[in-house]
Amino acid sequence: MRILVVSLLRLGDLLMSAPVLAQLKKQYPDAKIDVLINPQARAALGLIDGINVAHIFDRDLLQEGLMDAQRPILESFFRLDRLVHRLNGLNYDLLINLTHNRLSGWLCGAIQAEEKMGLWFDERSKAQFHSAWFKYLNDNADLRGVDTFHFVDVFRFGIGLAGQRTQVSWVSHKEGQEEAERHLSGMGRFIAIQPFTSEEKKEWPASSWVECAKILKKEDSSMGLVILAAPNEAGRAQELGQLMAEAGVEVRSAVCSLTSVPYILNRASVLITGDTSIKHIAASCSCKVVELSLGSSDWKRTGVYKEGAYILQPKLECAPCSHSAECHKPSHLCAEQLPAQLVAEVTAAVEISSEDRISRAVGMYPHVDVRRTTFAESGYWQTIEIGRELELRDVREWLGRLTTKLILQGEHFKAIGEFGSEASRLGQWMRSQFPQVAQDKWRGLLDQAANQVGDEYDRAEDAKIKLSMLMKESLKLNMVNISEMRRLQDKVSEVGHRLDIHRQLVRSLRYTIEEAI
Questions:
Q1: Are 380 and 416 within one domain?
Q2: Do residues 331 and 311 touch, judged by C-beta distance below 8 A?
Q3: Is 205 contained in some domain?
Q4: Which residue of 371, 406, 416, 444 shows the fewest CB atoms closer than 10 Å?
Q5: Which tens digits make up the pLDDT trace of 384-416?
Q6: Number of other CB atoms surrounding residue 487 within 10 Å
Q7: CA gyration radius, the chain
Q8: Three-state DSSP class for 13?
Q9: Does 168 fall in a domain?
């Protein structure tokens, strides 16, 4: 079997997809898995295990050919045609598009394969998705609600890899190990910091990094600090190191290749990082992670895919902002509202695994959202907000996400759906995450959830009946657009159907919690 995985975004996106590739290899152990990537993602190839051949789609080169009047007018066309012809000659059994933009959709439409998963355009220019999960991703491109799933989970479930997650093992390199040892020679315990990102909007200011380092060193003078930087960031790392030295903080700079990063992170106690490629590598390393989510960082979709990491993001209505748009605030407000004291307190508490200390620190900064990452028993990534009591909205959020998962997996079409089993798994997870919640509070929260969902379901049913009656009357009127009313009727039915599943889950969940109590 031969599989082509298309990932035409940034280096970090390919690294983030490593759990998908690992699980895909486990599912098809004898398959040859090729990738189609941008040139910028080449650096990740040395770390990801199981890739057979990497094909390069050089979008910049194609665009240069189109814009340069001195070049033959069809040069870019012929370049693209040769790439597609070469790929078609490899007779792929399965093509998987993990990019999900129009360019990748057209390209995947041109590449031949027995089966295709993810976005592609057919000969009628109609978008195909293969799975409700990929269609969900398309229909909710700008979704910021509570039912948002991590990209890795959308891809896993969309491909049909809904089973046990597969642990990623980064490829070992002797040169990378030797490089890491040179950087860490004589180091004891240390905290790694990755201050530089691909976008200025996502970066915390140097002054905040310096202040955070000062607090951490005051907390534990024996704790080392290491600045991680790529070769093209060497100058910036040197400047930041100089600022820390002037502030009396001893720090070491590790300007390193990507292959040495896993060795460094496996030695580190904690990594403090922005939204970077490094955090996706850290997701499969032994270090603990504190992620600073600023600017266009969208932690709901691309947060560090790891159990027990912490994500900090100031509570602003504009977060996350668009990648392409400039910050519309008078100053970099999200970075300014993330206090160095809080980051240092959370990092120090994470290092010693003290969630009580994290909660106390969060209580002093209510304008910052601090979340711990975890995996639900049903296999998807989610977060728990730190620093407040369990509330009804939490229960509704978890039930809503599980309802979405069941609908996208088509459980409601089966004779016997997995509603009871899924609710049981959710109940077990809730009890394990909140063991301190008393029996009466659990019952009260679930009673409220059941009452709210019941009321919403009754209103949806009432709206469906009224709309049906209105449609009958409207048939007599030539001015009414019946097709539009039918679409509205379908939408109301869809809401009612979703609420019915939600209601079933609440009933099963109440039983599970009662049993646990």
A1: no
A2: no
A3: yes
A4: 416
A5: 999 889 999 999 999 989 989 988 888 877 766
A6: 11
A7: 25
A8: helix
A9: no
CB 508 within 8 A of CB 420: yes
**Six token digits for residue 366:** 């209510």
Is the separation of the CB atoms in 507 and 453 below 8 Å? no
Same domain, 362 and 411: no
Q: For the segment 330-364, what is each residue's pLDDT rounded down to a tens digit? A: 888 899 999 999 999 999 999 999 989 999 999 99
The tokens describing 426, both together, are: 């959710």
Q: Give the β-pairing of 120-121 and 127-128.
A: antiparallel
Whether 62 and 178 map to the same domain: the answer is: no
Is residue 427 included in any domain, yes or no? yes
Are 374 and 414 part of one and the same domain?
Answer: no
- CA distance linking residue 110 with residue 276, whole number of Å: 32
Q: With H, G, I as helix, E, B as strand and everything else as coil, classify residue 97.
A: strand
| Identity of the residue numbered 310 | Y
Nearest Cα to Cα of residue 93 among 151, 31, 143, 148:
31
Q: How far is CA 291 from CA 137, 144, 192, in A?
A: 24, 19, 12
Cβ-Cβ contacts under 8 Å for 434 (sequence gap 6 or more): 390
Token representation of residue 43: 């650096």
Structural domain boundaries enclosing 424: 392-516
SS3 93: strand
3-state secondary structure of 100: coil
